## 1
Amino acid sequence: MPFSVTRRRFLGLAALNSAAALGLTAVSATPAVAGRRDLPLPRSAPAVVIGTGYGAAVTALRLGQAGIPTVMLEMGQLWDTPRPDGTVFSDMLAPDERAMWFTDRTEAPLATFLWLDVVNRNIRRYAGVLDRVHYGDMSVYLGRGVGGGSLVNGAMAVTPRRDHFAEILPGVDPNRMYEHYYPLANAELGVNEVDREWFEHCDSYRYARLSRKHAERAGFRTEFVPSVYDFEYLKREEAGDAERSALGSEVIYGNNHGKRSLDRTYLAAALGTGKVTIQSLHEVRDIARQQDGTYTLTVRQRDVNGNVLARKQIDARYLFLGAGSVGTTELLLRARDTGRLPALGAEIGQGWGTNGNVMFGRANHPHDVTGLLQSGMPALGIDNRDDPVHPVFAEIAPVPAGIETWVSLYLAITRNPERGHFTYDAATDSARLHWTEAQGQPSIDAARALADRLNQANGTLYRRDLFGDTRAFENRFTYHPLGGAVLGRATDLYGRVHGYPNLYVTDGSLIPGSTGVNPFVTIAALAERNIEHVLATDILA
Ligand code: FAE
């Protein structure tokens, strides 16, 4: 499916490319400052957006289009400058320091293979692209860099079922979401679908066809999953006509090709308005409010090795928090509990969930091969969402190891009703997540109901060698953190933070712990809805 380059996106892409060529950390397409090596952080801006993930990118584009000068502050780096070998990112089989955010060793979700510690590698501490933040019984994977989670995610662009959406966000009109904002977000994100005919005979999805066969034997339905990975590019990868990325074991540490990450879509378009500037390697530490209602942010600028280069301040009349569920929640909790924004309420930090994430693997029979070539971008899921007791959407995940592993892997999205919460820990000046192992049990129960049926129907067993010990189900991490500043509770129904005019939340924190499917399309669509209203009623009125 062609994804056309608009003039605005073209201008933004050009700005990103020239920033990459010059090795800049700030990007702007504004003629007066574009390409300036020392583009300083202004002392004030009408609008500041924290973060550059889905909610932030949507918001910045619409602010820029409305003519509002907007500064985006991103703690990660701009991932556009290739190394001498032409790569921007490292692959999963040979990760280097670019893989992970300031850690000595990579921490992949599959910790072991045949119980051997062969997956992870020692690396140098560096501003890498994937972070794994540990909170006792739960750890959260996050993207770091201009584009946030879009740089590291599996590209699955799934619109949830209407009934589930209405259940989780009852204050939002589903008609308008499904008729307007979801289609809008899908179009801007460049969502496309795999060619069904090609899918049936390609090597790239042999593993998915095998899992589909096993699912059908167990009486389950499967569903194709739309994606922001360019499936035409993938076809060319398999044909040997294009550099391999999804077929080159690239996913969680970034894709060198093929992926329509936000820097190619919303952020490029935002830059192309000429009103938006992105400052990378700028982390917001504190938010305060002046008597006249201006927000003052304290920002720490670092280099890729973690050295602090400067501490700066920037004032904003309108402040949008798009630092993701974990980042936004931490900023708000810190602001409340250090007394800078004392009127923030008790709802801040509440309503957090894992989107019911749980991973498991099945051991295939020797004749059931998954293939040496596996697309890192899933294209199929088992849809058992109608199950009245254990509704599950299980994406059929690859194991792109380059060898036959006889593993069928799944990331199940279950409807775990448990919710965690964050508190501020003054000793470490950070947010602490309260989530126990027992709260993960409903996810395992639901995934087990599906997986047991798969195993019984196919005479197969669980793989117990993949998660560092002998467990069959791994739910000590999530890819899909949601909540912490829930819409209609911590904010009004458009993301306006209670108690503070002109302060808005625009990311996954708004969603109370579950979307039933992969969340980024919902985050983007909700951000489209909210910014349209905020522009019309608060900013342009
Ligand atoms: P997010 O994309 O996390 O962006 C937040 C940004 O803010 C990041 O760039 C941060 O570095 C930055 N930031 C944080 N704190 C600060 C601060 N203090 N100052 C400045 N910058 C800051 O937020 N979802 C799907 O729908 N489909 C998938 O296939 C999928 N696969 C995934 C695979 C992996 C490995 C991971 C980690 C996630 C996956 N997700 C997937 C989840 C998806 O990427 C995630 O829900 C969205 O990225 C969340 O969007 P937000 O706008 O909330």
Note: The chain has eleven helices and 20 strands.
## 2
Amino acid sequence: MTQYVSVDPARPDPEVIACAARIIREGGLVAFPTETVYGLGANAFDPAAVAGVFRAKGRPSDNPLIVHIAGTDDLEIAARAVPEKARKLGASFWPGPLTMVLVASPGVPRVTSGGLATVAVRVPAHPVATALIRASGTPVAAPSANRSGRPSPTNARHVLEDLDGRIDMILDGGPCTVGVESSVIDLTGDPPVLLRPGGLSRSSIEAVIGDIRTLEQAPEAANRSPGTRYRHYAPKARVILAGPGEVAREVARHLSDGRRVGVMAVHPVPGGRAGLSVRMMSADPAGYARELFAALREMDDLNCEVIVAETVDERGLGSAVMDRLRRASQGDSAGPSQGS
Ligand code: TXA
Ligand code: MG
């Protein structure tokens, strides 16, 4: 049985938090809101509990979890060496949507770190997450609270859809404000490598620690980033990316093939056509990021066979949005234009 409890996102009831923390301490699994997406938490130092997270999600065991701490003071519990650049990033952006990969302290269980010598650490910026970690008295290992491969959950209903009956508790603290996962940066080498674009933009990071590299610029780092190997964010429908000038043509093409089409559109698309569902998305990348995963799930609920997703500029959070859309589409973009 999964207990489902609503909490005030700004001031969670201490009794509810105490109950959730007891579950964590006793080796159970609790889904909780963060500012990015919902996480599925377990005691990071309890190998059996962490193994339960992998089981509940159906996650490959070599894909390590992020260890969530309540504040920078707890960093040394998880990480052995904390370079200067990591200290600067922590001072500037924690609590917040940034995860740092550092050399792991010897106490971090292998199951948590996926057998790597490194550990990913984050201080989330959500009162419910902070309260839960503090009350648990231990760092909380938490991947996104979705079944492996599905879009990440940005509200508690998404968690229920994926994990009802497989975990002990869901804390419903309303919708997530960022909507895409944290940016993951590997600081075990210099220059640091951005392993996953996310809720904190590359330019914000570079403003504090200077140039960093992306995975395209440092492909060898992909070996250190197991998450990049797996299929992600995949709704049941086929996802096709289309630039602003290509959306109408792609929609028409798939409708005329008799498919149920969903469109995630920044610019207006004529609706009222049989088989077509239109979902307007924010033009601003931060808004698109907040709506993205819920929109992918909605399209599945509408039984769309094809989702045409309008692309956005890769500025600010736009790069995280495009990363998630590309993974969801597995490389499907608008076909060649016909005629001209
Ligand atoms: O915003 C977030 O980061 C959310 C919330 C719950 O904090 N968590 C999240 O966790 O997205 P997850 O497990 O879905 O993604 C973690 C990513 C994966 O791509 C994983 O491979 C990578 O971080 N990662 C974890 N530990 C790592 C390590 N030691 N070295 C390299 N990559 C690591
Ligand atoms: Mg995930």
Note: The radius of gyration is 20 Å.
